[in-house]
């Protein structure tokens, strides 16, 4: 007769694998392993984990399955953790994928929250030159990334289509030998969209990203232009792009202003009415013009967090009723929370995305580590100016202290209060934000709006994930996007 | 239910047969490895029950009267014992390569036997050479076929050469693949139509090792899966839902999604009430109705991880409707049956029914006719992009 093996949960002594934790106000404790897989424990279970006296077989099985503990001498959990960790970081080797071109500072809008020091339409000295454009394309192709995204910004890039065309054609010409995957996006308010622009976009597979703050009165209040018709022109532009190039060729971004607070349902309804099923509930950035003390627009992060929560409640309600809507930022976070994939979102990576995920080429040939870095420079702070296309080689740009120091200092794996944070694997380093708000790339996290916002998002998503099976299924679908 | 073996009603042979495998033909002059079914004239003649026992003739028992031209049978030297190895009209042909196994699963449908049965491997090799190149699919099962090591690889190589268009499915507990040398040899067959199906019964060692009754099995199986992935081999994971695994099914699905997302397919399977499952009924039986919500959550979690996921051996009436599109009519044609409750069911056509063994021995207490199919019942579930892991290169 064969000797029957019994269900023995742990035949040998246990030891901890690296884990971090965060207490919830209801007494539960969130535990995350070194790649960000999570489990909630009761206070008693958490004590048992801490003391390695785990009597409950189901708990022990979960903790072993989630690679929080192992039996002494086991190697498979470590191999699997290594594989997951390696997968989460593999984009680093690709290096810079996003290349932003500020083709002009001119704009016919005068938005109060604009991150850019806008210039009036007549001032052509704020346009990018052909020499600068070609040098920038050259630099972009120095990145080893198999995917290069060229994003045209402003000001309003449609005011300098000549350079948009030049960059696109030059990149495509170069790519005949290189064979990389190229993408082109014009970030535009669409007010100046015409058939010539559409012909060009059609011919070169160019996408559009526009600003839509919500309903007409809110949007036009946020985004003044002569004639007070920003909303009408944006919607007309969206319609033309969809009709000519297809529904998916234009996406929209919103910015939350003080006037938006309390109106999140209207904003989401507006997006749905306009056929957008992706919405990014985005707080205003503390940069450039937006940093100026115009108290009327100011609000603190706590107000935005309420705005986000109310919006997410509504989005989940809509999905449960059969209307698909995705909150883009939450979807990015969930991808990091529930898979090993790194969505490559520049503001939510560590090491930070500055320079090594994104580079910005300014109209005047200056190269910045990020869009926000350029805005600081417009206000006189040159910290994130990596150099100049006319003077500096790619190697100089990418190996200078202006880039390497903030990258190293802000790395969440070692930064104070990040390295022991249970959310670290899902979060990112934002040295530019912390420099702008506190004067150093690390900052103090309890006072950091970046940290407060992300903590609130993580907590909201986890609470819904844990409590609500419908949300859980939806979140898995979002994470898979 | 179709039977696959039996004793001849009579056998009139001049002398013992010198070959074991015979392809049945009915409308052509038989070759040296072919027997004539229905009428005489060959080296060996096979007639259905009620036919005349002429010279060199085997008379089939009634339950093997389904045999016809194109089928391949094994006949004992005295002509008395007949075994059906290939049914030309079935898409579910599989070959048992051995009854030996280094696992001893609580619910094994083919309980292992410890004896040398390597003749099964030799017979499989001969059979593969006799199959028509149009053969759609062939499964290799055990026992544990990888116990043969290089012997199995030779069979796979022969199969690949003889049948370049056939889909092959190998069923293995995966442990042998933890040996990098063996996995490299297996991968060297280089057959893109070969997939290995590997059962996983837990997200960590204790549960899996208990279910398969072998300590250390989980580590070897998962290491084996990783080694196969390093060699870019096609992998299916099979999870049988039974009393021990059903409560852990979401955890198992989560483990696969997070650690093994590169697998091509996951099969979530109901219990087949044969072999050890019947002997260990109290330890393995659980009503599928009890775990239906967890099964649905697990299946959708895997789908969202970009893994093709099918639910096998579950009746639609015990599955939440949102996972009906994942339920496969999988039960082999010679194994499935329906209950009287099924006869008035509006979705019987779409349902796999029950294993004959389940109908007889144990099935859900919640089998009930579904009066009206909902219009959304077969709506597709959106699938996600497959995810990959960044594997180190194979050693």
From TrEMBL, chain A:
Highest taxon, organism lineage: Bacteria
Family annotation (Pfam families): Radical_SAM (PF04055)
Radical SAM core domain ranges (all copies): 93-321
CDD domains per the UniProt record, alphabetical: Radical_SAM (cd01335)
Keywords associated with the record: Iron, Iron-sulfur, Metal-binding, S-adenosyl-L-methionine
SUPFAM superfamilies per record: Radical SAM enzymes
Transmembrane region(s): none
InterPro entries: Aldolase_TIM, rSAM, rSAM_paired_HxsB, rSAM_sf, Sulphatase_maturase_rSAM
Sequence similarity: Belongs to the radical SAM superfamily. Anaerobic sulfatase-maturating enzyme family.
Annotated PANTHER family: ANAEROBIC SULFATASE-MATURATING ENZYME HOMOLOG ASLB-RELATED (PTHR43273)
The protein's name in its UniProt record: His-Xaa-Ser system radical SAM maturase HxsB
Source species of the chain: Winogradskya humida
Taxonomic lineage of the native organism: Bacteria, Bacillati, Actinomycetota, Actinomycetes, Micromonosporales
TrEMBL record, chain B:
Ranges where the record places region Disordered: 373-395
Highest taxon above the source species: Bacteria
Keyword S-adenosyl-L-methionine in annotation: yes
Protein keywords: Iron, Iron-sulfur, Metal-binding, S-adenosyl-L-methionine
UniProt cross-references to Pfam families, sorted A to Z: Radical_SAM
Keyword S-adenosyl-L-methionine (UniProt): yes
Domain Radical SAM core, first and last residues per copy: 97-241
Record PANTHER family: PQQA PEPTIDE CYCLASE (PTHR11228:SF7), RADICAL SAM DOMAIN PROTEIN (PTHR11228)
NCBIfam families, A to Z: rSAM_pair_HxsC
Protein's UniProt name: His-Xaa-Ser system radical SAM maturase HxsC
């Amino acid at each position: 007769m064969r000797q029957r093996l019994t269900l023995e949960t742990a035949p040998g002594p246990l030891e901890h694998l690296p884990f971090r934790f965060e207490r919830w106000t209801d007494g539960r404790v969130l535990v995350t392993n070194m790649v960000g897989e999570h489990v909630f424990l009761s206070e008693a279970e958490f004590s048992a984990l801490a003391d390695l006296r785990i009597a409950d077989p189901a708990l022990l099985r979960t903790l072993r399955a989630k690679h929080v503990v192992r039996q002494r001498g086991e190697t498979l959990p470590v191999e699997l953790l290594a594989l997951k960790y390696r997968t989460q970081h593999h984009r680093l080797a690709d290096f810079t994928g996003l290349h932003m071109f500020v083709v002009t500072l001119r704009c016919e809008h005068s938005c109060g929250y604009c991150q850019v020091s806008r210039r009036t339409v007549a001032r052509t000295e704020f346009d990018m030159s052909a020499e600068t454009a070609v040098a920038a394309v050259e630099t972009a192709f120095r990145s080893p990334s198999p995917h290069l995204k060229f994003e045209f910004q402003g000001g309003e890039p449609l005011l300098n289509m000549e350079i948009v065309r030049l960059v696109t054609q030059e990149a495509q010409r170069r790519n005949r030998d290189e064979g990389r995957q190229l993408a082109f996006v014009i970030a535009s308010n669409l007010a100046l969209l015409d058939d010539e622009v559409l012909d060009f976009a059609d011919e070169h597979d160019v996408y559009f990203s526009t600003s839509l703050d919500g309903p007409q009165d809110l949007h036009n209040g946020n985004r003044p232009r002569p004639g007070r018709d920003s909303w009408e022109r944006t919607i007309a532009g969206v319609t033309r792009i969809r009709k000519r190039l297809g529904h998916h060729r234009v996406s929209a971004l919103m910015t939350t202003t003080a006037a938006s607070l309390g109106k999140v349902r209207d904003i989401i309804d507006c997006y749905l009415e306009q056929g957008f099923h992706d919405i990014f509930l985005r707080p205003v950035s503390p940069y450039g013009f937006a940093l100026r003390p115009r108290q009327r627009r100011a609000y603190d992060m706590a107000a935005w967090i309420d705005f986000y929560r109310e919006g997410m409640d509504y989005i989940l309600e809509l999905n449960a009723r059969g209307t698909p809507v995705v909150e883009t930022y939450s979807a990015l976070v969930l991808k990091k929370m529930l898979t090993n994939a790194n969505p490559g979102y520049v503001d939510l990576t560590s090491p930070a995305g500055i320079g090594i995920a994104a580079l910005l080429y300014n109209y005047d040939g200056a190269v910045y580590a990020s869009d926000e870095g350029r805005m600081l420079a417009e206000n006189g702070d040159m910290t994130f100016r990596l150099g100049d296309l006319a003077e500096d080689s790619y190697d100089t740009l990418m190996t200078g202290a202006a880039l390497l120091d903030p990258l190293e200092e802000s790395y969440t794996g070692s930064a104070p209060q990040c390295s022991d944070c249970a959310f670290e694997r899902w979060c990112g380093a934002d040295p530019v934000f912390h420099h702008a708000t506190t004067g150093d790339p690390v900052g103090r996290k309890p006072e950091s709006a970046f940290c407060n916002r992300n903590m609130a998002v993580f907590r909201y998503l986890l609470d819904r994930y844990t409590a609500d099976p419908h949300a859980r299924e939806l979140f898995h679908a979002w994470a898979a996007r | 239910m179709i039977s696959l073996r039996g004793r001849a009603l009579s056998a009139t042979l001049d002398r013992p047969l010198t070959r074991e495998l015979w392809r049945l033909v009915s409308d052509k002059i038989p070759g040296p490895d072919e027997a004539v079914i229905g009428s005489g004239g060959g080296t060996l003649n096979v007639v259905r029950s009620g036919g005349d026992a002429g010279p060199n003739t085997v008379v089939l028992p009634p339950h093997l009267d389904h045999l016809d031209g194109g089928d391949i049978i094994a006949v004992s030297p005295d002509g008395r014992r007949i075994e059906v190895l290939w049914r030309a009209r079935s898409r579910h042909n599989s070959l048992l390569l051995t009854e030996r196994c280094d696992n001893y699963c609580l619910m094994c449908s083919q309980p292992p036997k410890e004896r040398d049965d390597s003749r099964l491997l030799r017979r499989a090799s001969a059979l593969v050479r006799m199959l028509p190149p149009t053969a759609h699919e062939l499964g290799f099962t055990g026992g544990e076929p990888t116990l043969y090591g290089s012997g199995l690889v030779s069979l796979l190589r022969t199969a690949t050469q003889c049948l370049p268009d056939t889909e092959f499915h190998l069923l293995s507990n995966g442990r042998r693949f933890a040996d990098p040398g063996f996995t490299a040899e297996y991968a060297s067959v280089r057959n893109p139509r070969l997939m290995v199906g590997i059962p996983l019964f837990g997200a960590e060692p204790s549960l899996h090792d208990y279910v398969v009754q072998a300590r250390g099995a989980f580590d070897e199986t998962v290491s084996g899966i990783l080694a196969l992935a390093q060699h870019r081999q096609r992998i299916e994971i099979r999870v049988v839902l039974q009393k021990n695994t059903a409560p852990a099914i979401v955890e198992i699905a989560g483990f696969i999604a997070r650690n093994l997302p590169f697998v091509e397919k996951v099969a979530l399977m109901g219990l087949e009430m044969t072999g050890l499952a019947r002997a260990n009924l109290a330890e393995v039986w659980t009503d599928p109705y009890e775990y239906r919500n967890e099964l649905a959550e697990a299946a959708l979690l895997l789908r969202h991880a970009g893994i093709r996921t099918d639910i096998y051996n579950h009746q639609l009436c015990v599955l939440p409707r949102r996972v009906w599109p994942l339920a496969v009519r999988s039960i082999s044609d010679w194994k499935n049956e329906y209950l009287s409750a099924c006869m008035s069911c509006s979705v019987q056509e779409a349902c796999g029914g029950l294993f004959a063994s389940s109908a007889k021995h144990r099935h859900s207490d919640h089998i009930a006719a579904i009066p009206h199919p909902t219009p959304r019942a077969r709506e597709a579930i959106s699938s996600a992009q497959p995810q990959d892991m960044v594997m180190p290169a194979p050693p």
